[in-house]
Amino acid sequence: MTTQLNKSKGENMGLPTLNDYLILEKIGTGSYATVHRAVRKGGNREVVAIKCVDSTILSKSAIDNLLTEINLLQILKHNNIVEMKDFFWHEGRIYIVMEYCDGGDLSSFIKRKSQLPETICRKFLQQLALALRYLRSHDVCHLDLKPQNLLLTRKPVLTLKVGDFGFAQYLSTSESKFTMCGSPLYMAPEILLRREYDARVDLWSVGVIMYECLFGKAPYSSSSLEELVEKIKSCKTIEIPKGCSVSPECKNLLMSLLKHDPNERLSFDDFFAHEFLDLAHAPTEENHEKAIALIQSAVKADTEGDIEEAFHLYSEALRYFIPQLTNEADHDRRKHLRVRVNEYINRAEKLKAMCMAGNSGKLESSGRKELLQGTSFGYQELRILSKSTTDMASALEMGEVGEQYLAEGNYDLALEKLRACLGILVPLINKEPPGRRRELLNQQIEIWLTQAESIKGLLATRAVDDSPKESKHLQDQCVLQ
Asked: Helix 390-408 vs helix 411-431: angle between axes, to the nearest 10 degrees?
């Protein structure tokens, strides 16, 4: 990597120089660097951001950090990471040419709105999580995650991008460091208290950013560093501000990230798999292919008369298609996709009504015919066998209520009841001895798990109506910095 950097010192080798750019305006100033908006001369006159660093006033460690940042940015290429396009050295200054983010940073975005709705917070966190998942795949730890370092672009759609890798290092969850780095307000307790730490410090920072998005301020906002340290030392309980409310999934993620003890903090794998983020259905090319495959399977099942299977497949496909639709910037493609999605929604609703009415069609798919035909009698037998276990009996009643809400189209309450009953039944089956009751209970859990997943697909369809308004709201709140 050192050789690669040294090559960029020569200005007579066809490499970029400051003369290749037209400087337009200064857009940022730091202790040893300034950032300018500029236009590349010739060609498509691309707008870029140029970070100018005065290397003559930097310490050796600061120069090392800068070179590490450049080397990392040469490697890291992801839609949610600010791209480095060029770099060059001239007369004691280092110039880093970056992708220009026309939406400013997340800090300014939050200040304009005071606090962000949970839906918008989820969008930003999902994009941040995608970037972090990519960084973890390269064993890179950012070490300075904060709203000021999360930049926004408005075209083709509003997108969050992680920037400023000045403190970033190669660091896994099994390696440890002691070096003090980052911004105190977003710094994990183990760094602030000068203890050994690993890559999990980034997760604490994500928790603070999430808190600030939702409530407009950091959880340990303080008037001085000493006050901040004292709050951290005392492990002061982090609470949701009075008068504010968030969904159970949102609160669970927030509080799981903001654990003072890194061993109790959410792991990266659990963070990426968390229900609130739903990365599994994020608008990526890979997930678009999954959606198409699911629709093909749904149409096949529908054609064969297996309406139960077709309903679940359509519902699951919608969980992939809706984020794709809300994220599509091209007007024509969006219009075409909206027509297709509306068709899938309508068909899923019709199939659901047929399922609820007991019209099971031909039901010729392997295993499902027997499962559905045995549901009524098997369920009644399970109810009788569960009478001796109060928790199980109560959970089965909740499940019945959930199915009734589903039949009525009240998806929120249906999902709430099914989640509640499954939250009781799943742990119970792990303790259940082999036998008829375990067999019936396992069968019923599978049915309700599938129904819960289908309801999530139907709930996701709300975004079809909400997305244009929300998209405009996001754009209106985002201003040039």
From this structure: 150
Residue identified by tokens 């091209």 is 330
**pLDDT band at 176; cut points 50, 70, 90:** low
Instruction: Tell me how far CA of residue 18 lies from CA of 7, 55, 410, 423, in angstroms.
Output: 16, 16, 61, 61
Q: How far is CA 432 from CA 387, 389, 437, 460, in A?
A: 14, 11, 8, 35
What is the CATH code for 106-277?
Answer: 1.10.510.10
* pLDDT at residue number 16: 58
Residue type at 411 in one-letter notation = Y
**Secondary structure, 3-state, 429-469:** HHHCCCCHHHHHHHHHHHHHHHHHHHHHHHHHCHHHHHHHH
pLDDT of residue 254: 96
pLDDT digits 0-9 by tens, 316-339: 999 999 888 888 878 888 889 989
Please answer whether residues 37 and 47 qualify as being in contact, where contact means their C-beta atoms are separated by less than 8 angstroms.
yes
Give catalytic residue positions. 144
390: CB partners within 8 A, 6+ apart: none
| Per-residue buried b or exposed e for 97-107, using 16+ beta carbons within 10 Å of the residue's own CB | bbbbbbbbbbb
CB of 290 closer than 8 Å to CB of 320: yes
* Separation of alpha carbons 258 and 262, rounded Å: 9
Tell me whether the CATH fold assigned to 285-364 matches the one assigned to 374-460: yes
Eight-state DSSP code of residue 358: T
285-364: CATH, from 1.10.287.1080, 2.60.40.10, 1.10.10.60, 1.20.58.80: 1.20.58.80
Q: What is the DSSP secondary-structure string of 89-158?
A: EETTEEEEEEE--TT-BHHHHHHHHSS--HHHHHHHHHHHHHHHHHHHHTTEE-S---GGGEEEE-SSS-
Fold of 374-460: Methane Monooxygenase Hydroxylase; Chain G, domain 1 (1.20.58)
What's the pLDDT score for residue 422? 93
Residues sharing a CB contact under 8 Å with residue 188, sequence separation 6 or more, in sequence order: 182, 197, 200, 201, 204, 205, 262
Q: What are phi and psi of 396, to 5 degrees?
A: -65, -35
Least confident of 33-42, 203-212, 360-369, 429-438: 360-369
Fold entry, domain 2-99: Phosphorylase Kinase; domain 1 (3.30.200)
Strand, coil or helix: 417: helix
3-state secondary structure of 244: coil
Please give the residue that has the higher pLDDT: either 18 or 150: 150
Which SS3 state, helix, strand or coil, does residue 86 take? strand
